[in-house]
Amino acid sequence: MKNRRSRHETAVQGTNDSSIVSKHSMVTHGYFADHYLDEVVKQPCRRAPLINRGYYVRSLVIENVHKTFLQQYSGQLSQIVCLGAGYDTAFYRLFKAGLLAHCHYYEVDFDTVLSHKKSLIETSPLLSDCVSEVAKSEDDCTYKLIPCDLKEPEKLTALLSEAGIDWSVPTLLVSECVLTYLTSAQSAEVINWAGSHFANAVLAVYEQTHPSDPFGQVMLQHFRKQGSPIEVACSTPELHVERLLENSWPAACCHTALDCYQALVSKAELHRISSLEPFDEFEEWHMMAQHYVLASGYKGCCTEIPCFKNRCSRHYIAAPRTQKEKCTIRCFPVSSTASSSSNTTTFVERFAHSSVVTCDNAGSEALVVVGGFGVLPSQQRQ
Predict the structure, then answer these.
(1) Contact 272, 181 (CB under 8 A)
(2) Based on the number of CB atoms within 10 Å of its own CB, is 83 exposed (0-12), middle (13-18) or buried (19 or more)?
(3) Are 94 and 70 in contact (CB under 8 A)?
(4) Considering only CA atoms, which of 247, 275, 201, 197 is closest in space to residue 31?
(5) 103-109 and 347-348: which strand pairing?
(6) Distance CA 118, CA 109 (A)
(7) In sequence order, which ranges of the chain are alpha helices (DSSP H)?
(8) Taking the chain (382 residues) in consecutive chunks of 10 residues, what is each chunk's mean pLDDT?
(9) DSSP string covering 170-231, please?
(10) Which residues have CB under 8 Å from 70's CB, separation 6+?
(11) Contact assessment for residue 207 and residue 293, using Cβ atoms and an 8 Å cutoff
């Protein structure tokens, strides 16, 4: 009989199956090119258009992170470490695109997950031929699977060292919706492990945020129903940055998935994906994209890599702190126009909106709010 930890790990591993099927659905509908997914998804399932679009931006963001890093260090030795890789196929896409010369690529996940992935590779001519090409390659590219639970950083250190990792070489570490299934202490330990072991590195973390607002509560309930509840999600993008800064990363920034989407998708590309399938859930899409972030930590020579910093219209940073202190948040009530027949003012709670504090010539502050939803008992309104 499985103990509680084993059941939890099985549920977390199950999110890999669900995620890869969702990616396959998105690819099948033409959002993103990745024919290698056909080799690892044996029971395809069509997802809703909203889910397809969510996985499209997720794939787009991670692809851009990979390419930004590889282009920065093209022609010199570099490393990529995929934490909680699951059945991810990014390695095959990047290798066939000729982007992994002089790059050592490591995938880390549970032993059971990588054992199954190894079987999938061995029984797929497309994947096994690619791995054979890597072995015969003269451009110093390697591909290694590292079976390890991320909750065991000392074991991970030993396995990576045994596999030939170089702790001083520029390294990209990617965590794609992985740390969120660990406890707060465990996720911080992984982040601190990465920041303290690699001298020159980028850590790219793609995961959820704003878990406490109405949409965030629905999001958490969804994962609970799947049997893999989210253990930790930073309340704001700024707190994602603080988590990195407090755990051995000297520089960090954060962008919402919506900001990344708007920075990466051209008008022509937007027109293309709009023609792929009927889609009218734009408000839900904007809310969902604001509830996922790319938080990036930098150190050593990799500090100069901007990723999205120079491409997004805004990015989140955390102000340096000289001591531990609680965040101070100024809250502004948003009032409707007072009725001519009443002196009362109605205050409206809002979420999934954009806002900015402005100041007039007299020094008076005003809060400008655009978009989003108001909340009333048991319902939402624009």
Answers:
(1) no
(2) buried
(3) yes
(4) 275
(5) unpaired
(6) 12
(7) 4-28, 49-72, 90-96, 111-123, 125-136, 153-162, 184-197, 214-225, 237-245, 257-264, 267-274, 282-290
(8) 53 68 97 97 95 97 95 95 97 96 97 96 97 90 97 97 98 97 96 98 96 93 87 92 96 93 94 96 95 95 68 63 39 37 46 63 66 58 52
(9) -EEEEEES-GGGS-HHHHHHHHHHHHHH-SSEEEEEEEE--TTSHHHHHHHHHHHHTT----
(10) 78, 94, 99, 100, 103
(11) yes
Q: Measured between alpha carbons, how far apart are the two ends of the chain, in Å?
A: 50
The two tokens of residue 21 are: 């099927």
Q: In the structure encoding, which two tokens stand for residue 121, read together?
A: 């590779």
Q: Which of 119, 135, 129, 57 is nearest to 87 (CA)?
A: 119
- Quote the tokens at residue 358: 């402005």
The amino acid present at 17, given as its one-letter code, is: D
Place of tokens 């930098």: 298
As separate numbers, helices (DSSP H) first and strands (DSSP E) second, the chain gives 12, 14
Taking only the tens place, the pLDDT of each residue in 88-125 is: 999 999 999 999 999 999 999 999 999 999 999 999 99
CA–CA distances in Å: residue 68 to residues 164, 197, 306, 342: 24, 22, 9, 57
Tokens of 363: 């020094």
Separation between Cα atoms, residue 265 and residue 51, nearest integer Å: 17
Say how many CA atoms lie within 13 Å of 13 toward its Cβ. Answer: 18
Neighbouring-strand partners of residue 298: 202, 251
Hey, what amino acid is at 53? Answer: R
